[in-house]
Structure formats: C-alpha cells, structure tokens
Amino acid sequence: MDKKLITACGDELYEAMVNRKTVAPLTDRYSDITIDDSYHISLRMLDRRVEAGAKIIGKKIGVTSKAVMNMLNVHQPDFGYLTDDMVYASGTEVPISEQLIQPRAEGEIAFILKRDLCGPGVTNADVIRATECVLPCFEIVDSRVHDWKIKIQDTVADNASCGLFVLGDSAVDPRKVDLTTCGMVVEKNGAILSTGAGAAALGSPVNCVAWLANTLGEFGISLKAGEVILSGSLVPLEPVVAGDFMRVDIGGIGSASVRFV
Hints:
CATH topology: Fumarylacetoacetate hydrolase, domain 2
Shape: globular
C-alpha cells in the first residue's frame, strides 16, 4: 500500500473510534494488504490520538491464548499502544456506552516496568529483572471493524483492537509469584464465567512480554521504564454491556473489578 492509502486507512479507523461507528474490514477491500502495512496504519491512527492530546503510557500484546485465537480466528499475536485516556482504576465505573462500540472484556496480568527492555535477545530473565511489579487487569477490547470480522491485518491496523483497561490495586513483585501456574477466575454479575492460568498466554505472560520486546526491537522500538505492558488474555473474551459487573481474581497477585456504564 502506498503512503497516501495508509494515511487514509489510519484516518478512517481513528474517525470510526471517535464517532463510534464501524467500518468494513480492510482485508475485504484491499486484498494485498500486509501485516507491515497494517502496523503503519495503526501508527497513523496513534498519531491522530496523540495530536488530540493523548499520551502513550504503554503497550499491549493481543491474541496470545488459544481461546482468543479460536474465537477471533486469528492465530498469531499482535501488539498495540496504550494511551492515558484508556486507563481506569479498579472498582470504578467504565463508560463503555459512551466510548466503545462492541466491547469485550478479558482478564490479564499487567506488567509495570522499572527499566527499558530492547530486543532482539531479550530473555524471560531479562523481563523479570526489568519488571517493577505485576497487577491484575481487565482489558476491554473493542473493534472498529464491523461485527469483529477481522483477520490479523484488520486487528493490527486497528491498534490491536485496543479499547480501555482497568488496573487492580495490588502490586506484586514478579519474583514472588509463579506467573505460569497462577490461576485466574473471572466472574460476571456474581457468577463464575471462566477460569484460566498464566500458561494460557504463550506458555507464560513472561513469554509474551519477551516476544513483544524482541518483536519491537527489530524496528528499533523499546519497552520503556514506567510503561504498562498488558501481557494478553488468559481467558476467552466476554461481550459486555452497560450494567454488567465483572471481577477477576489471580492467585498470588490479587483482584480487580469493574462496573460498566
């Protein structure tokens, strides 16, 4: 795709986000679109957010678990950028009816970095050394693509289907919890909805962060000290509407809750 078309697609997705309207899949309209094209489109969309006043505070890894891969029929991870207007504290009301289009919630483990990570060559040990703490997290993903009819190029272009996210109150040293075997329980409106474990995300959330650092390192981009890194869902995505209440508990880490309005 030429630069003009990449810019137009990025602008289209940004306007869809702002106006809460969906667009037809890019892969239906541009048969030759590549993943590389899609990342350039996502950067244009990000530029528009930053121009409007948002600040980049981290990055996310998406499509890491088999449950999510099978649900979306997307079979490789992707990444997107987090901005300061996406984040909410645990226990607060999250205005999905005002900000999102077709939201789905997922339980994750968030990493807060205390030093930079820049690949290639980043190991799991490097990730642990660079991590200040881990927290329970809800990511509320959203797609600007109609009916979530996405291929990998569509979700990449759409900033990895970023929506909003909620960080729990408990911050735990990653050396004090087994991030592979830790169990997750997600409740919705008082009933257990799903369960998972750290191993659901590429074998370990630490693997996910290492993958991201090494993938971005190929483009000269590093994970920065102070950034929030969302490591990927451990459970299936759950559609949510205003009025829903959800809670996630992660063994050895803690809990986070959210009420959608």
